[in-house]
Specification:
Strand content of chain A: 5-15%
Order of helices and strands of chain A: HHHEHEHHHEHEEHHEEEHH
Largest sheet of chain B: none
Order of helices and strands of chain B: HHHHHHHHHH
Number of strands of chain A: 8
Largest interface: A-B, 43 and 29 residues
Shape of chain A: globular
Radius of gyration of chain A: 20 Å
CATH architecture of chain A: 3-Layer(aba) Sandwich
Strand content of chain B: under 5%
Number of domains of chain B: 1
Radius of gyration of chain B: 21 Å
Shape of chain B: globular
Helix content of chain A: 40-55%
Strand order of the largest sheet of chain A: 2-1-3-4-5-6
Number of helices of chain B: 10
CATH class of chain A: Alpha Beta
Structural class of chain A: alpha/beta
CATH superfamily of chain A: Alpha/Beta hydrolase fold, catalytic domain
Helix content of chain B: 55-70%
Oligomer: heterodimer
Chain lengths: 337, 226
Amino acid sequence: MITLLVSVAVLAVVVSLMLSPIETLGWWAGWYGHGLHDPRSAPPPEEAEELPEATEHYVVYLDGIANVGRYHYRDVQGLLDGLAERLPRTRVVGDIMPYSVRDVSLVAPERPLARWWRSMFIKKLREERSPLSFSINLRNLFQVLVAADPRYGRIYGQGQAQVILTALLKAGYQPGSGAPLTVIGYSGGVQVGLAAAPFLKRGLKAPLAMISLAGVMASEAGLDWVDIMYHLQSPTDRIPMWGQALFPGRWPIARSSHWNRMLRSDRLRFVNMGPMRHNGPGSYLDDSVVKHGENNLERTTNVMVGLVHEIMEHHRQHASEPGEPRARARDRRVKAV
Amino acid sequence: MLDLAAAAELIRDVLRMTSGFGETVVTTPGAGRLAVIVVVLAGLSESVGESVVLFANRVKPKHFVRSLFISAFIFAFTYFFLAASIWAVARLFFVPDASFRQISTVVALAQAPRLFGFLVFLPYFGLATSVLLWIWGLLATTVGVVELLALTAWQAAAVVALGSLLLLTLQRTIGRPLLALARIARRRAAGVDLITDRRKLRELIDSGPDEGLRPHVPERRRRLRL
């Protein structure tokens, strides 16, 4: 009986993994009937939401693999609210589904398994410890693998960039304004952000930075397009190390990989977050664990707010040509010297 | 005629590269028909595994299925020429009276690992799987040739390697019209001007819907002609 159950589970995982690129590829091929979505067709900002005045910087948040769509868990919402409150001249955009190039949440009725995802999401919201609710993480993890695959990653990045650009336009981003964008990715969200980075940089023609909160990422070409990146990690959090082990481009032996070139540059900086867990109790976003007078959520928010100020300062000092890879801009300066 | 259980056992022997499978193949009645089925199914499976090219070319669903079958057919044809090349090399260097029917049956059944070719579609792990399946198929072919022609492992490896080399040479010389035909068949089945070149595929994807989304492509420096 146990063997049968294990076999069925393994088969389900393999089939699910096999089918995981279909949404991205089907979107690209126009099989979903919408064709390719043009971000410029997004509703104008006045129809969307009221804009805060003097927005000089945009932050896009790409959630980790527990995400089901635009509905955030309490801890994630806490981070987004904290950032919005502490960064008055920054617009924080969080309503993005990083694991669907069509920006369709898992619980949307058009998905055949919407009912299943909804019930699993409810389990997660109730903090029920059910292995079945992990199916959400697994489904999204497979999308991270799609984004990391050299064959599919480019299409995934293009799709996700359009999702992000559409969200930015809805949030009042003025194309051509050159307003900097910082992508904050949590766990697998970092891989998604990096896959989209070349298209974002080209689309916005503006400075692009990334904050990786315990990111799990491959040695992605998008690293060349990011002006500066901060990687926040706890020494007790082992999950990001999976990325280091799984993706050969991140091994020290691959000296000319995007990751190792980024490591040798001054564009990748590490921040030690102290003892925190990847998710759940004691995580980076847990507001119940208090140390040195601040809880984990406050500490993470404070660190990110400080980094956003640092990033803005960095952009002021090291402007890159709009729409070109940061790595190339640096090479050009070196040649000029 | 082989029944289903016997066919499954024979394929299992090939997959495990069990000692003696080369001889079993030629002595089992109906193995030839099974070999044809294996080659066509392996071709179909490989086509599914490599269908990202069809998606990237925005092939419509109806044409997509047709393209898979055409690719399977082309795969079977390629195998036929591979078997012929291996047979020619074996006759020339080691076994003058080697039988084409026997060699083609063994080489065809040795493609059984490629029945898992659909796994190449797996995200991230697919590329490594593709390499593993290629090595597995090559080893199975070599083992089959060793037993069938009573060659040493090195001799059989040389026969398979030289056979593959001969096939490649033929494809680039007198086989060009056939390759062109295969391209036309693929294009017709897909209903679009199918792009298979990796660089051009990348350009196709980068050329997306929005001008502003297109990644920066540096202009090539041209040499000044004096």
